[in-house]
């Protein structure tokens, strides 16, 4: 297994749309393992392949709380089939937008269909934190970031902050 570098805003690869994975082969299993390792090391509760520059429709998650048994979830070619009318507002963060947190309103429950590591198509009803995490991670596969749901003013403030940080880093290196 290998830990991978997580791309940070304003890296334009975060805006690309990921491709469907044709087969659950060894390369896909290795990528999932690398992503879990990268996510746990961050630490984070979810990671999409696009966040490490792999344009593949693959996300990993683990919503177990500290002290609980790890509960890694790998979703290949995931699709949300149903959204609840009821919405909920949750504070979200993103490993690609570090140290920033904003409230986002999303459907409270979703039904997600995906292929697991055995190549089996699975349907899962998600609610609470899992429902929010699924929506956040699947957005990444379409190049969508949670800051896109904020007001233009707030989003521009975040973008400016990261553009400035990138410039400073380029100057220093
Ligand atoms: Zn994210």
Structure description:
The protein is globular, with a radius of gyration of 16 Å. The chain is an alpha+beta fold. The mean pLDDT is 96. The longest helix is centred in the last third of the chain and has 21 residues, at 152-172. A five-stranded antiparallel β-sheet has the order 1-2-3-6-7. Strands 4-5 form a two-stranded antiparallel sheet. It is 29% helix and 28% strand. A hairpin with a 5-residue loop joins strand 6 (110-115) and strand 7 (121-126). Zinc ion binds next to helix 2.
Bound small molecules, by name, code or SMILES, are: zinc ion
Shape: globular
Number of helices: 3
List the secondary-structure elements in sequence, H or E: HEEEEEEEHH
Number of strands: 7
Low-confidence stretches: none
The level of helicity is 25-40%
The largest β sheet comes out as: 5 strands, antiparallel
Strand content: 25-35%
Features:
28% strand, two-stranded antiparallel sheet, alpha+beta
Short overview:
With 173 residues, the protein is of the alpha+beta class. The chain has helices at 26-41, 128-141, 152-172; strands spanning 46-48, 58-61, 73-83, 87-94, 97-107, 110-115, 121-126.
Task: Provide the fold topology.
Layout: H1 26-41, E1 46-48, E2 58-61, E3 73-83, E4 87-94, E5 97-107, E6 110-115, E7 121-126, H2 128-141, H3 152-172
Antiparallel strand pairs: 1-2, 2-3, 3-6, 4-5, 6-7
Bound molecules: zinc ion (ZN).
């Amino acid at each position: 297994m290998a830990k991978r570098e997580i791309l940070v805003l304003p890296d334009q690869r975060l805006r690309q749309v990921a491709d469907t994975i044709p087969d659950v082969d060894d390369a896909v299993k290795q990528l999932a393992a690398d992503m879990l390792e990268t996510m746990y090391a961050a630490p984070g509760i979810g990671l999409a392949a696009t966040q490490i520059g792999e344009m593949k429709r693959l996300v990993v998650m683990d919503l177990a709380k500290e002290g609980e048994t790890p509960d890694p979830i790998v979703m290949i070619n995931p699709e949300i089939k149903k959204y609840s009318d009821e919405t909920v507002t949750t504070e979200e963060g993103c490993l690609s937008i570090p140290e920033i947190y904003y409230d986002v309103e999303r459907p409270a429950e979703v039904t997600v269909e995906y292929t697991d590591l055995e190549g089996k198509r699975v349907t899962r009803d998600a609610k609470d934190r899992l429902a929010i995490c699924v929506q956040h991670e699947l957005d990444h596969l379409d190049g969508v970031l949670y800051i896109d749901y904020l007001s233009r003013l707030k989003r521009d403030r975040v973008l400016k902050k990261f553009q400035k940080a990138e410039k400073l880093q380029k100057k220093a290196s």
